[in-house]
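Reviewer 2 asked us to include a model.

Predict the structure of this chain.
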Amino acid sequence: MRHMREQVASGAAIVAGPMHNGAGLLKEMLLGVVIYDRPVPEATRIATADPAVVGGQLRVEVRPLYLVH
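Predicted model (C-alpha cells):
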C-alpha cells in the first residue's frame, strides 16, 4: 500500500486503497483500486511500477473512468 499512498501524496492519483475481495479480512485482501489523474499510458506505467505488481503479487487492469460533473 506504500506505492498507493505515494501516488496520492504526489498528486498522480486522486484516491487509492485496498478493496474487499469477499474473504473478509484485510490480510487476505489482494485487491486495490487507484484512480489516477493522469493519461492512460502514464497511469499504466505508474501502476505497473508498483513493487507488488513487479513481484507478481498483484496484476494491473486499466479501465478509463468517465466522471459525471
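The first strand starts at residue 13 and ends at 18. The chain has one domain: 2-54. We have added this to the supplementary material.
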